[in-house]
Amino acid sequence: MQKTIVILLMLFSGVVAQAQIQMSNNALVNAEFNTPIFREDFDTASTDWPTLSNFNNLFMVQNGTYYMNRKVKGEPYAILSSKKINASAFQLNVRINPIEIAIDGYVGVLFMLQESSVGGYIFEIGPLSKYRLRQVKNGLYVNITGDSKSNGWVTSEGLVNYNQNNIITIACQDRSYDLMINSKRLLSFNDIEYKEGSFGILIGPETKLSIDNIVVTQTEKSNQAVINNNSIITETSAAVNVEIAKLKATIEKLQNDNDELALVVETMKAKGYTSPDDFESKYVSSVAANNSLKLKYDSLVNEYLFVYGKYDSLKSVQSIPPPADLEIDSLMLELDDLKQKNQELEKENAVLSRKVRKLSAGSSNK
């Protein structure tokens, strides 16, 4: 989206009335929409889709998907594009995944929305395979489907694949509308009130959803008519828009550079630098000091690697067992045998010594 307006819909959901719209049991749109005029695939993060992280909302773009988590009760939240679509002929497709919907939550697509929410429509998915269409009139919700008892909700079994992608389609031709979910037409109506309007996404309270893409197409005929009638204006406008975009990008870059330079100047002033020459000399000496430190660091790193390599070498040498020597092994066994015999002889000698002492003692007593 070229520009996104974030609005918090503070509408009175308790107000329920039947809108003055002509409903139809048959499809009203028969045009072929084969010329894309807008597409959003969420391949990259952009300011068009805000990233919010607070107590009420968690919105973010990630891996080609826009995730929305509305945590609070009672109030919905809408993100509305500033791009307007003409009611003469268009088809709006939104691939949306209702991950989690509370009993009073919902997921909605806004279309033909007017400035300051004085008009427009909301096509919504609710829990338990429910849908409804509401009109926004001067800041109030007006139910088009259902009744006051159901608060506009209509049940259609097997309508929505929860926690899976679903295609919501809104087709418009000469201010007649067909509304579909997963290629199943749910309702058609005619309303001549709006010539054009914006579109967007509405997330209800305690609801989680994700959107993979948004595509707006129009008929080839309507596109050709614009080219034929306004070819010079269109080409000139396109060229001007390109130049404006380039200038805006240049201005933005210059502004960022200017901000960075201003910050550098303020920082250097705070450190006592007073003139451009002073700035330059301090910068040069700072770079030289930094390079010197870097050389010392590199030297220490090299020394560490050298010592560490020596340590690994010594550790590997120490871990190698001594080579086997059969003659040494034989001598060691013989030594152990002699030690054992010596211990036995010492024991025998001790026994004999005790006997000698006893005999000597007996002899002296006589």
Topology:
Blueprint (H helix, E strand, L loop, with lengths): L3 E4 L14 E3 L8 E8 L11 E2 L3 E6 L2 E6 L6 E10 L2 E13 L5 E7 L7 E6 L3 E8 L2 E4 L10 E2 L10 E8 L2 E6 L2 E7 L5 E8 L3 E13 H10 L1 H40 L5 H43 L7 H40 L1
Antiparallel strand pairs: 1-7, 2-16, 3-18, 4-5, 5-6, 6-18, 7-17, 8-14, 8-18, 9-10, 9-17, 10-11, 11-12, 11-13, 14-15, 15-16
CATH topology name of the largest domain, in short, is Jelly Rolls
What does the overall shape look like? elongated
Integer-rounded radius of gyration? 42 Å
By CATH, the superfamily of the largest domain comes out as: Exo-inulinase, domain 1
Sheet-strand content, in percent, reads 25-35%
Query: What ranges have pLDDT less than 50 throughout 5 or more consecutive residues?
Result: 10-19, 224-236
Helix content: 25-40%
CATH architecture of the largest domain: Sandwich
Secondary-structure element series: EEEEEEEEEEEEEEEEEEHHHH
Q: Separation of termini?
A: 129 Å
Under the CATH scheme, which class of the largest domain?
Answer: Mainly Beta
Query: Oligomer, anyone?
Result: single chain
